[in-house]
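Render this sequence as a predicted structure.
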Amino acid sequence: MCFSFCSQIDTLTRSASDPKRTFRLADAIGPRDTSAKPQNQMTCLETYATLRVFSQTTRPVEISRILGVEATRISPIDSESKYRVRRENHFWAWSTDSIVQSLDGLEHVRAVISLLQGKETELAQLREAGCDIDVCCYRVSSGQGGPFLDNHALTGLARLGLEIWWDVYFGKEQDYEEDPAGAADTA
């Protein structure tokens, strides 16, 4: 499944080959609050959101079938793993990493919400089967400031019954700057 995000027209396309599956993000999660400045972007060096599903009984391929979404990462139970969670759970994930090109964490969260629009029944089915489902947001920051969720994102997450948490790291801006061609040869 291919997703493309265009912030100019606020559209998420589920499939390049099926334009009928295009919808406006604003229709899915409500209009943006344009009065709020995205100050959280000023120190953000990298971010993405991941929808995660853990299950002791439901295999990743079945999770994909139920949700109607192809995972970006799967891991079946590995009885030989040194990590308990991998020994005891199948893992299914869909991540905005490499899909949403933005340092605004809110755009990544909105993409997850949009992906799951109309899938409340499917999420309930997975929960009834014993699956644990959440959204994990990865963020690397160079200083003060942090993630921000507006009321529409909070409402969307609540409607879907999704908990959200952040895995935050601190980095240096120079580690994320692109090296211009030949810059290393000038020493």
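Summary. The CA atoms of residues 43 and 142 lie 5 Å apart. Strands lie at 4-6, 11-13, 22-24, 44-55, 73-75, 90-95, 132-141, 163-170.
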